Amino acid sequence: MFGLLQLLRFTLPIATSPDVPSGYFTGLGDLTLMELFILPKHGDVTLGVGPLLVVPTVTDESLGSGSTDIQFGGCDSKVTNCLQIMPSSSPPRLNGIVT
């Protein structure tokens, strides 16, 4: 699409949370879908930008937000970090990525 390479990544976390006083419980977190359009390389750095969608799939309210979010994301191959631009009520968040 748009003559650019694309990268589609999704995560569906399985999380464990403390449950006082009974111990712990395990369940699903929110599903995150990120599609990056890989931009032309500049020097040693390759950039990717695109939409990020969070879909509520939590099995317990303590394991995720439980709400749908549409955000903007970006990655670079040199630093191996991703930036999620959240809705205006939240600050930008930096996530590490293993490459």
Task: Note down, in words, how this protein is organized.
The chain has 99 residues and is an all-beta fold. It has one domain (5-96). It has no helices and eight strands. It has a six-stranded antiparallel β-sheet, with no helix packed on it. A two-stranded antiparallel sheet has the order 2-3. Strand 2 and strand 3 form a beta hairpin. It is elongated and about 55 Å long. The two termini are 24 Å apart.
Strand order of the largest sheet: 1-4-5-6-7-8
Radius of gyration: 16 Å
Low-confidence stretches: 88-99
**What's the number of domains?**
1
Total helical segments: 0
Q: What's the assembly state of these chains? A: single chain
Q: β content, as a range? A: over 45%
List keywords for this structure.
two-stranded antiparallel sheet, 99 residues, disordered C terminus, single chain
Task: Please outline the helices and strands.
Blueprint: E1 5-11, E2 14-19, E3 23-28, E4 31-38, E5 47-55, E6 69-76, E7 81-85, E8 93-96
Antiparallel strand pairs: 1-4, 2-3, 4-5, 5-6, 6-7, 7-8
In short:
By secondary structure, the protein is an all-beta fold.
